[in-house]
Every structure is written in structure tokens, then in C-alpha cells.
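Hi, here's the filled form for the chain we discussed.

Project: internal
Contact: R.S.
Residues: 242
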Amino acid sequence: MTQQSSNSDERGAGGTPDVGNKTTDRLAAIGRSLAGTVPFAGGLLAEVITEIIPNQRMDRVEQYLEYLARRLSELEKSRLAESITKAENIALVEEGAFQAARAIQQERREKIANCVALGIADEDRSNLKSARILEILAQLDDGDIQLLHAHAGNDRSAFKEIRPEPALIGSKSSIIEDNNLYERSHKKLEQLGLLKVRISVDTETHLPEFDRFSGEPRGHHYITAIGRLLLHRVGLNTPETT
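And the returned structure, exactly as it came back:
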């Protein structure tokens, strides 16, 4: 996974979050150095990296494991005992733990646990579907998921909460920035294959219509099958996504 490979130093053996003595000792050494170089700010940063971050990560992983255990308890005992020990399912649990350690929001950890649990329950392992869904999830923030969910329901009211104020000529830079980020979220969902664009065609010329401001083809987004699957795996089930 490209996004997470840059953070490989945060993982221990097997790709799990490294919260052992080696990492703690290294962080403690950095903290002492900071505290000695810049006493006030360095001391605060030392506390953050030696105490707050490791403790938060352990709390997050623990909460993720609790959510996961609850979901897995819904499976038959014999089926769970057979599934949980498979190498690909162990890898799912480990990847979920790593993502949960970085997840700030409780709801995010629940989504990760739900995705892992459904992956373990999935008997079709031939195409590594569950691992790939979890990989895609790691690249999405909460706003991306909210936007995808809005497209799944095709409910105009759902977009009112997330669509920024339209950017016009002379608009404040903050409004333009919000619109750029909104469009960037759409682009990300397109690149990951979760959304596609249906191009609008002029009824007279039978040619694509273009936006006069951006110069890009006009059209509307629609959610793909993989997009619906991802929403289902994270527990966002609607009549349109099940």
C-alpha cells in the first residue's frame, strides 16, 4: 500500500503497530534531546511523543479489538475458529489494528472493525477482496466516506451538509479553497474506482457539454459497485447499498 509504506517505521514485525520497548526507548531519547535543546516547547513535545501518543495508540487498538470481538461473536464458533487462523485473516486483523492506531474518531475505528469482521466472515477469499477494500479505506478520510455515502443515497438533502458555498468570481479565498477540496475529494473517489462520471451530451450537437469556467466536461457522478461494497463493509447500509 503506497500511502502506508511511508509509515513502515511505525510498524513492528508483521506490519502491526510497534508500541514495544524499542520504539518507546527511541522516543524517550528524542524527547530528552528536545527537552534539553528547547526546554519549554521541547519538554511538551517530549511528553507528547513518549507518553500521550503511545498511550492513545494502545487505547485505540484496544477499542478496535473490542469492536472486532463483538462483531466476530455473531459468527458460529466452529466457523470462527476455522476462519480466524487463516493467514489472510490474520493479515486483515493486523492491518485493521495499524489503521485503528492512527484513527482519531471512534466511529472510524468502528468502521475498520466492521470491515475486518465482514472480511473474516467472507468465504470467498480467491480475489483478496477484503484486503483490497481495507486498503482503499486507508486512503479515505471521513469526509470522503460521507461524500460517497451521499452519492449512494442519491439524496439531495445529504449534500447540503457537505457541499461548500459556490465559488464565484470575486469569492473569498476560503470559499475557493473549500470548493477545491470538495472537488479533490470527488477526484480521489474517481481515481479509486468508487465513483464514475456520466458525461452530459448536448441534445442538438450530440457532443459533450463543457463547463465554461473549468473547461472540463459536464456530467454527474454515480457510485460504482465497488463503492457500494465499501460502504457495506464499513456498516453504512442503505436500501441502495445493500
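Let me know if anything looks off before we file it.
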